[in-house]
From TrEMBL:
Residues 32-166 form the DUF4142 domain. It comes from the Bacteria. This is Putative membrane protein. Pfam families: DUF4142. The lineage of its organism: Bacteria, Pseudomonadati, Bacteroidota, Chitinophagia, Chitinophagales. It comes from Flavisolibacter ginsengisoli DSM 18119. PANTHER family: BLR2558 PROTEIN (PTHR38593:SF1).
Length: 171
């Protein structure tokens, strides 16, 4: 009886030791992962705010359509990022960086074609930078949830870049 109890205890201990600890795995995020989440957070927030501004200031139907897509898709991306960030203990906030704050201030003084030109050029620049950011995460990140997020949204960002670039050529 003692032998059966010891074998049962050993088996239970072995199974417990082999069980993957999801919490520990989720916290397995390198500096690349953490930096990516912070940058993606700032980018999503900026895209939503800039898109909202473009919806009210743009005079171009294509720019307005693009801006609405930015608000819709980056709002969803931000919600998804919040779940990923919680898993690696990174705080995400609805905030934008100083560069985008300055851009918003500049755009706030413009109307019509001048607004559309500055806005869409900034979108091309931002989406080029984000393609690089997301590609870097896919190749150098260690946390699977963060890498999955980057892989999921990279095609969207590439599409946004192509659309913004196409709109830019119409001015």
């Amino acid at each position: 009886m003692k032998k059966v109890f010891l074998m049962g205890s050993a088996l239970a201990l072995l199974l417990t030791a082999c069980k993957k600890d999801d919490t520990e795995d989720n916290l397995n995020a390198n500096a690349q992962d953490q930096s990516f989440v912070t940058s993606a957070n700032l980018s999503n927030s900026a895209e939503v705010r800039l898109g909202q501004l473009a919806l009210s200031r743009s005079s171009n139907a294509g720019v307005k359509t693009f801006a609405q897509m930015m608000v819709t898709e980056h709002s969803q991306a931000q919600a998804d990022l919040g779940s990923v960030a919680t898993g690696i203990n990174v705080n995400v906030k609805d905030t934008i960086d100083a560069m985008h704050q300055m851009l918003m201030s500049r755009l706030d003084t413009l109307n019509g074609l001048a607004f559309d030109t500055v806005y869409i050029n900034s979108q091309v620049k931002d989406h080029k930078a984000n393609v690089t950011l997301f590609q870097s995460e896919v190749s150098a990140g260690t946390n699977q949830s963060v890498k999955d997020y980057a892989s999921k949204y990279l095609p969207h960002i590439q599409m946004h870049l192509n659309m913004a670039d196409s709109i830019r050529t119409t001015f």
